[in-house]
Amino acid sequence: MIKAALSVLLVLAAVSSTFAKYIPKTGKRIPQTLSRGWGDQLIWAQTYEEGLYWSRSKNKPLMVLFHLEDCPHSQALKKEFSENNELQRTLDEDFIVLNLVYETTDKHLSPDGQYVPRILFVDPTMTVRADINGRYSNRMYAYEPNDIKLLLSNMQKAKKLLKSEL
Predict the structure, then answer these.
(1) CATH of domain 35-159
(2) Which candidate, 38, 37, 34, places its Cα nearest to that of 50?
(3) Do 158 and 127 contact (CB within 8 A), yes or no?
(4) Is residue 159 exposed (0-12), middle (13-18) or buried (19+ Cβ within 10 Å)?
(5) CA–CA separation, 163 vs 166, rounded Å?
(6) Which stretches within 44-165 are classed as H helix?
(7) What's the pLDDT tens digit per position in 28-74?
(8) What is the pLDDT of residue 25?
(9) Distance CA 87, CA 43 (A)
């Protein structure tokens, strides 16, 4: 009787360990996606070149977001950016999106310097829209968490310019 109970217990332990999910000692890991937490439901371009291709082929403006994972300003903007449903919906429907944690070789994407967070718009003709900027004169393409409404307004400008110029 004891042997049978011990056998059943051993089989149950073996079966339950095969169905258990591995959790690292540091805790549950979130899978790294191209969104890097800026909007997991969005389809993100992998490279600047791919973003330009999609922008041209789908006739949508490209929004390029420069940030750093360990920058407190980038992290604060990411929180507001990812939680704003209107912004996420507009990006999903009307834009090609790319986020970069490194600089590109295109100097047009850093017209006033290389800083983060920085957001620029590129139209389907591959023209960087330097005329669509934020509210700061010393960092013209910087946005802060309380600038989400301005960012939404600038996204609307990018869409209007696209329709009026093409």
Answers:
(1) 3.40.30.10
(2) 34
(3) no
(4) middle
(5) 6
(6) 48-58, 72-83, 85-94, 148-165
(7) 545 557 889 998 888 899 999 999 999 999 999 999 999 999 999 99
(8) 46
(9) 14
